[in-house]
From TrEMBL:
<dbReference type="GO" id="GO:0045110">
    <property type="term" value="P:intermediate filament bundle assembly"/>
</dbReference>
<feature type="region of interest" description="Disordered">
    <location>
        <begin position="79"/>
        <end position="109"/>
    </location>
</feature>
<dbReference type="InterPro" id="IPR028435">
    <property type="entry name" value="Plakophilin/d_Catenin"/>
</dbReference>
<comment type="similarity">
    <text>Belongs to the beta-catenin family.</text>
</comment>
<dbReference type="GO" id="GO:0072659">
    <property type="term" value="P:protein localization to plasma membrane"/>
</dbReference>
<feature type="compositionally biased region" description="Basic and acidic residues">
    <location>
        <begin position="94"/>
        <end position="107"/>
    </location>
</feature>
<dbReference type="GO" id="GO:0005886">
    <property type="term" value="C:plasma membrane"/>
</dbReference>
<dbReference type="InterPro" id="IPR000225">
    <property type="entry name" value="Armadillo"/>
</dbReference>
<dbReference type="GO" id="GO:0014704">
    <property type="term" value="C:intercalated disc"/>
</dbReference>
<dbReference type="GO" id="GO:0005634">
    <property type="term" value="C:nucleus"/>
</dbReference>
<keyword id="KW-0130">Cell adhesion</keyword>
<dbReference type="GO" id="GO:0007507">
    <property type="term" value="P:heart development"/>
</dbReference>
<dbReference type="GO" id="GO:0005912">
    <property type="term" value="C:adherens junction"/>
</dbReference>
<dbReference type="GO" id="GO:0098609">
    <property type="term" value="P:cell-cell adhesion"/>
</dbReference>
<dbReference type="GO" id="GO:0002934">
    <property type="term" value="P:desmosome organization"/>
</dbReference>
<dbReference type="InterPro" id="IPR016024">
    <property type="entry name" value="ARM-type_fold"/>
</dbReference>
<dbReference type="InterPro" id="IPR011989">
    <property type="entry name" value="ARM-like"/>
</dbReference>
Length: 296
């Protein structure tokens, strides 16, 4: 567990170690089957896998990178229009989200297991069944790592979490735990998931009212609550930016007074939470059909 946090070279060596990842997955599967999701060894195994999934998309061996990203490169070469905010850029991003991974192997080995649906379901199972905060946080964090990029792998993992493995109910429960780091990681995972436009309706229906409920009534005091609040606002921004129905759902959940209060930050003009709330308010105002409801 300590060695797995030793940096890129350490992660590379451990991912390449024959049988190591397979053994960790095997042990966790046995612990879940024996209804023992809270033992210390399971926690250690999940924390190792969490660390080995960090920056996985960037650090994949060339053989995997070629097969997974060939479609992405072909897509990019077909679009010669540069620009950060142009409509063509947005279309390319949407196409990338629809680009599927190569078909999953039925018996993954080694590094292939790290993004396989079997391990994704194991993480979700541990989130639901374990009462150890470190195990919950590491499981959420591994899924956060796997959904952090912009290529086909993160979006495929996101689809598995939301649609194939029905993971949102378990993640939603973590929004209401008392442990601040677990809650922060759960929100960060939802922020990653909410970037996928094809999943936004499912996510909003399942967790948008819960996201509003965990917003504080004013600018948060502690750093970790401030980061969690900022991440919550950006998640709500993703869900409502292009969807008037979701913006109305936020309104009906009494989110607007909270967001306004968080945006009014007198003591620290550079507060992450206040800035995120202001960005969200600006986006909400773009739904002109809701102006009369906002004013009320």
């Amino acid at each position: 567990r300590n060695m797995s946090s030793a940096g890129p070279e350490g992660r590379k060596k451990m991912r390449e170690c024959d049988g190591l990842i397979d053994s960790l997955v095997y042990y966790i599967q046995g612990a879940i089957a024996d209804h023992e999701p809270n033992d210390k060894a399971t926690e250690n195994c999940v924390c190792i896998l969490h660390n080995l999934s960090y920056q996985l998309e960037l650090e994949l061996p060339e053989s995997y990178a070629q097969s997974i990203y060939m479609q992405r490169r072909n897509l990019s070469s077909n679009d010669k229009t540069p620009g950060c905010f142009g409509t063509r850029s947005r279309k390319v991003k949407e196409k990338q989200q629809d680009t599927p991974l190569p078909e999953e192997k039925s018996n993954p080995r080694g590094v292939e297991s790290l993004w396989h649906s079997t391990l994704i379901r194991i993480y979700l199972s541990l989130i639901a069944k374990s009462t150890r905060n470190y195990t919950q946080e590491a499981s959420l964090g591994a899924l956060q790592n796997l959904t952090a990029g912009t290529g086909p792998m993160p979006f495929a993992v996101a689809r598995t979490v939301v649609q194939k493995a029905n993971g949102l109910p378990s993640i939603r429960t973590m929004l209401h735990v008392s442990h601040p780091t677990v809650k922060k990681t759960a929100v960060s995972l939802l922020r990653n998931l909410s970037r996928n436009t094809s999943l936004q309706s499912d996510i909003a229906r399942e967790v948008l009212p819960d996201l509003v409920s965990i917003l504080p009534e004013s600018v948060p005091g502690s750093d970790i609550v401030c980061e969690t609040t900022a991440s919550t606002c950006y998640t709500l921004y993703n869900l409502t930016q292009s969807n008037s129905h979701n913006a109305r759902l936020l309104l009906s959940a009494d989110g607007l007074p909270k967001i306004i209060a968080i945006s009014m930050n007198d003591c620290n003009m550079f507060s992450k939470a206040s800035r995120a709330a202001s960005v969200l308010l600006y986006s909400l105002w773009s739904h002109t059909d809701l102006h009369s409801a906002y004013k009320k």
